[in-house]
């Protein structure tokens, strides 16, 4: 396990490769033109655009390869897990992982300083696209689109660091650097370890192999994001231990976290027509996160809806136990997840056709199973690009 001194050092560590690119682009006034080119750079095997500046081209070459220890069979295992349970992964990401991210005061301050407190729809869309690209077939191979997504995400992080550090609003000595490697490691653990825990809390069974493979893909992703390999635990058990000592130990109340959570709840409550079901979204959040975190983040509490959600969890567990032997149970379970995810997608896109780009093979399997939440996308991917304010 990584020691405390190493963890503390990660607070002051940025991403030298990406940071150098942003410094160059800002100093030469090329941010907007590079954004336009990177918006069209989407596939792993797509040639690097010739019109990019040398610093960007060199960065894309340097960050193109997966680590040598990558086991593609384990990556494939995670894909099969996502084919079966991707809708439930997405539900926990939406209702639990985002709130747990907001329970970390330092990252929440970063969001406030980049004017993103009132943009939950954008954050959810970008997170959804990131996970869809990661969990597609061969995400790091010739048919995938995940490596450009990671490369552009690193540039976003570097842009945030650049502008916040020059804003005069951040105390590096006290807080380290914005979007430091410790923050990225914490986010990785929330989106991997805590998602598995959250799925089990809502009644979805996840085997140990599925959990290990899902965490493994995130560990490969973390290396590509620039997180030092020695900072990421090799096994899920070690990752769970680090999650408890690093991430959960950092949770606490903050004005920014409360506002972020309120905006998220407001967004998801729009899924539910009328006022009859007011409170169900908050109850679902409370089912997937620690009660103290829910209290710190100001998540409303309703005894009636809490009982209803707990009843739903018991039903989910009953269906899970029956799924292997009952086609009806499997259908009900998958349809429930699909309807929830489909409603989320409609909220993210204001009821319009979604621009989320679901990998073709994954989409075909979800369609065949009757669980695909969206129709085939029209237009381009929503993969993020760098903006002037780092947002």
Write a structural description.
With 391 residues, the protein is mainly α. The protein has one domain. Helix content is 63%, strand content 0%. It contains 19 helices and no strands. It has helices at 4-10, 16-28, 31-38, 54-62, 72-102, 105-113, 120-134, 146-165, 172-175, 181-191, 193-201, 208-224, 236-247, 255-269, 280-288, 291-296, 303-323, 327-348, 360-369. Helix 5 (72-102) crosses helix 11, helix 5 (72-102) crosses helix 12 and helix 5 packs across helix 18. The chain starts with a helix and ends in a 22-residue tail after the last helix. The model is unreliable at 376-391 (pLDDT under 50). Pfam families: MPAB_Lcp_cat. Residues 117-317 form the ER-bound oxygenase mpaB/mpaB'/Rubber oxygenase catalytic domain.
- Give the tally of β-strands: 0
- From the spread of the alpha carbons, the general shape counts as globular
Mean pLDDT over the residues:
82
Main sheet properties: none
The topology string of helices and strands comes to HHHHHHHHHHHHHHHHHHH
How many domains? The number is: 1
Structural class label: mainly alpha
| Termini Cα gap | 33 Å
**Radius of gyration over all CA atoms, rounded:** 20 Å
Question: Helix proportion of residues, in percent?
Answer: 55-70%
Unreliable runs: 376-391
Strand residue percentage: under 5%
Instruction: Tally the helices.
Output: 19
Domain ER-bound oxygenase mpaB/mpaB'/Rubber oxygenase catalytic: 117-317
GO molecular function, one term: oxidoreductase activity
Region (Disordered): 371-391
Biased composition (Polar residues): 380-391
């Amino acid at each position: 396990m990584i020691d405390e001194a190493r963890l503390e050092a990660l607070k002051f560590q940025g991403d030298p490769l990406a940071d150098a690119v942003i410094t160059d682009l800002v100093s030469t006034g090329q941010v907007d033109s590079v954004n336009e080119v990177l918006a069209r750079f989407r596939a792993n095997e797509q040639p690097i655009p010739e019109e990019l500046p040398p610093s960007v081209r060199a960065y894309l070459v340097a960050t193109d390869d997966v680590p040598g220890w990558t086991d593609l069979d384990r990556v494939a295992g995670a894909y099969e897990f996502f084919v079966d349970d991707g809708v439930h992964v997405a539900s926990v990401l939406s209702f639990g992982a985002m709130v747990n991210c907001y329970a970390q005061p330092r990252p929440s301050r970063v969001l406030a300083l980049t004017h993103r407190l009132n943009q939950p729809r954008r954050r959810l869309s970008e997170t959804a696209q990131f996970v869809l690209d990661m969990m597609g077939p061969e995400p790091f191979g010739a048919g995938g689109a995940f490596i450009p997504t990671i490369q552009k995400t690193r540039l976003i992080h570097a842009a945030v660091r650049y502008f916040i550090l020059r804003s005069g609003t951040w105390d590096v000595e006290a807080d380290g650097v914005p979007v430091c490697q410790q923050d990225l490691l914490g986010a990785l653990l929330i989106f991997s370890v805590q998602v598995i825990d959250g799925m089990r809390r809502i009644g979805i069974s996840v085997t140990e192999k599925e959990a290990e493979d899902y965490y493994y893909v995130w560990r490969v992703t973390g290396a590509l994001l620039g997180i030092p390999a020695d900072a990421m635990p090799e096994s899920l058990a070690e990752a769970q231990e680090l999650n408890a000592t690093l991430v959960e130990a950092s949770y606490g109340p903050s004005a920014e976290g409360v506002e972020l959570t309120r905006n998220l709840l407001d967004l998801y409550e729009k899924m539910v027509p009328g006022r009859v079901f007011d409170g169900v979204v908050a109850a679902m959040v409370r089912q997937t996160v620690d009660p103290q975190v829910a209290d710190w983040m100001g998540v409303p509490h309703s005894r009636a809806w809490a009982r209803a959600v707990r009843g739903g969890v018991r039903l989910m567990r009953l269906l899970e136990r029956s799924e292997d032997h009952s086609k009806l149970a499997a259908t009900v379970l998958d349809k429930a997840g699909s309807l929830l995810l489909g409603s989320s997608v409609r909220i993210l896109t204001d009821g319009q056709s979604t621009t989320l780009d679901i990998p073709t093979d994954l989409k075909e399997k979800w369609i065949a199973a009757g669980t695909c939440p969206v129709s085939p996308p029209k237009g381009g991917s929503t993969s993020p690009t760098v903006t002037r304010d780092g947002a």
